[in-house]
Specification:
InterPro entries: Homeodomain-like_sf, InsJ-like_HTH. It comes from Acinetobacter bohemicus. This is Helix-turn-helix domain-containing protein. With 195 residues, the chain is an alpha+beta fold. The protein folds into three domains: 48 residues; 54 residues; 52 residues, no CATH class. Helices cover 43% and strands 12% of the residues. It is built from seven helices and three strands. Strands 1-2-3 form a three-stranded antiparallel β-sheet, with helices on one face. Helix 1 packs across helix 3 and helix 5 crosses helix 6. The protein is elongated.
């Protein structure tokens, strides 16, 4: 029989075997394991009575007491796949509660949907490929226009917008114009002055 034990339980077993073989005392074992001598006595009795399996946690391998039964799980998943396909876990949880009177925690719904491929978490989704836009090769091939609001005159005048014409190939500033706001009319005036 295979016994699953944690590192802490394995360390307890080694110390208790040393106590049983009279290499260390129960008081020293209690200091090592940070337990009381009464607890060491109880663990030794458990080791003598049940063997190594007596030191393993008794509820290990047992289903959790808050676990949902498989019938409820299959019912929820069938409802989600038939009526709520394409919904995220949050909305599916809300609809299960309001329409079908199934009050299941949202994280449980999320876990079930992820396990049955009804929902893919954001970090596992394939990223959309974005093709980079490289700078143009020749001067004047592409002119970028942008407006920048700032207190350009450092309080000596009202805040205004600077319209800038930038060559994409070289990054040179081709035309600059201050205006009150970034409007279509101001862009037309700046474009006429640039041309």
């Amino acid at each position: 029989m295979l016994i699953t034990m944690s590192d802490k339980e394995i360390q307890r077993l080694a110390v208790l075997q040393d106590v049983r073989d009279h290499r260390i005392t129960q008081v020293r074992a209690a200091e090592i394991l940070n337990l009381s001598t009464r607890q060491i006595t109880r663990l030794l009795q458990k080791l003598n009575q049940d063997g190594v399996s007596g030191l393993a946690h008794a509820s290990r391998g047992q289903p959790g007491h808050r676990r949902h039964d498989d019938l409820l799980k299959s019912k929820c998943l069938s409802i989600i796949s038939e009526h709520l396909l394409g919904f995220g876990p949050t909305l599916a949880h809300e609809k299960l509660s309001s329409m079908f009177d199934l009050n299941i925690p949202i994280e449980t719904v999320r876990r079930w949907m992820t396990a049955n491929d009804l929902w893919i978490p954001r970090f596992k989704r394939l990223k959309r490929p974005y093709q980079p836009r490289y700078n143009r090769d020749c001067f004047g091939e592409l002119i970028q226009i942008d407006g920048s609001y700032h207190d350009w005159f450092e309080g000596r005048a009202t805040k205004c917008c600077l319209l800038v014409y930038i060559d994409d190939a070289t990054g040179k500033l081709l035309h600059l114009r201050f205006c009150e706001a970034e409007t279509t009319f101001d862009y037309m005036l700046s474009t006429r002055a640039y041309i």
